[in-house]
Design goal:
By secondary structure, this protein is α/β, with parallel strands linked by helices. The strands form eleven sheets. Strands 1-2-4-6-8-10 form a six-stranded mixed beta sheet. Strand 40 and strand 41 form a beta hairpin. Helix 3 crosses helix 4. It is flat, with a radius of gyration of 31 Å. The chain starts with a helix and ends with a strand. The relative contact order is 0.03.
Length: 611
Amino acid sequence: MEINSEDVLKIENNEVVSCDKSAVNVVFPEDIARVRRQAFLECDKLESITINTACKSIGELAFSLCTALKSVELPEGLEQIGAQAFKNCTSLSSVKIPDGCKVKSRAFERCKALESVVIPNIENDLIAGYREIFDTSYIKHITIAEGVEKLPKRAFEGFYSLETLELGKDVAYIDDFAFCGLWREIKIELRTPHFAFENGMLYNKKTKKLIRCFSKNIVVPSFIKSIGEDAFFDVESVRSTAEQTFLPYVESVSFEQGCTVNALPKLWKELCLYFHRKMDKNEMTIKKIVETVNAQVVKQKLKDEKKSEVSKMGAKSVLEPVVAESGVVCEKWEDKDNQYIGVKCNRGGIELKLPNKSAVKRLEPLRELLGMIKSKDVLEVVAFAQKNKLALQGEKAERYAVVGKGGRFSDLGRNVASIVATKEFVAECDRKPGAFFVDGELPILNEIVIDAPKKAASALCNRFWFYAHNLKCVKCMDGELSQPDLFFKEGVLRACLNKDIESVVLDEGVERICADFFEDDSSNAIIRAIYRGPFENEQKGVFENCFNLKSVKLPQSLTEIDDRTFFGCHNLSNLEFAGTVAQWRAVEKGEDWHKWCNFAVVHCADGDAEL
């Protein structure tokens, strides 16, 4: 029976302070914002609780020892669940953590009936962090929600009762050791298009990599190209003589005819160190599996070597005449398995990877594409290449990168001269802003072409102005973007990109001038060196050594000026502040913020303030 909340709940300032021990079914009023610490402690008759959508926080031990609690509805807007919030709720059988909610340690400790959980997209480490939240040994069903893209190493270690795992549609990466420490047969249900689970085998559909097997006798399909480190057994346990050797359900391995696996997993090579000693039954099985896979690898390598010699010569002989007759100036290089062609277009450029073994099939589309170079825009050339399945190089490009759906900029090589970002990639950036993240200098990059209007491209390209010092413009659908003089991030002025600037006017809304652009990325040694002075702990200011700077107008919203902001600006003779003298004096100022400047007062709205 649902009890009126006014009869059982004590509420102060829109927070639930406590609950009567007689409560059975409770529905929160709409204006509740928080459940305080121990509010429902030992309410052992409480069977269900419905929390309102405005509630943002559940305190520590809030529902601890509610032993009859069977269900709880957590609202989507919930931001935090405190430590041990549902400890010893021994009747609670399922829970769905809202997207983005931060869950503290042991929140669901000793919830022995909790068999089903939904893992959302959260900031802290997926599932690995949840081992500190749940008693994982009781959980039988896990659903990975939408928005979760990666399953990390040892993600399911300790889930000893797990029977079914459902992967959401956004899961695109599964670590080789994601299932390390999980030693039972499970059923995997997939909504993600990136993976498949067949005959007890989980594999990556794009790379054809076998990730994990859950059956005793495995026949590796012919389409599988590589074997994951943890596909058949726990390599890390096998390598350690101090640990027990674990083996899942794999007892034997064989290969379908035509299988092209040509390399042992990297860590398997170390296992040979342990095969000379006396082995138990499990280790003997492991040795047999390693030998079987190695025999397949040796066999395939011999085939690959013969194919490579024949196909490589054939590829050269058929591709070179097509390139020559086109009259297009191309850059050409090769490796063991592929021929590469780099072509500069009217805007940007493209690189094609042409596999030696199938070069003949690419001749006609290649001939037509080269014929388009002089007359068509690069975006039309890219669209043609994609339609005709000519492999465009992206992150691994030598000179001309084309980044399409599923691509990233974070691994671009230092010798890339131009980038083309397709419409599909720009659309993905709305959902995954990190896709346009670039990390590391691009000294040769001088041109970016984006299939988007200037307004959309401007936000995407901000970081490139830092890393690509030769980049002067970004070409968009409706014109070009020039390099900005200043870089802002979230109301903070982070850098001056134009060291020849003579006058600066900062708009209202700018609160800080702070050169520590990478204050949340201490691992980036390259950029740290760029933005720091000659000594390791010396901060370099935003306008430091801008010798041509003469006039600066600062907004009333400004609250902080960092160290060395105007250090060495010898010609800076006019500094204005839109606020009052009192407001200027309240602005926090760093060390040497105006050293070697040529002004003695700051012109404020109600008079001059002396330095």
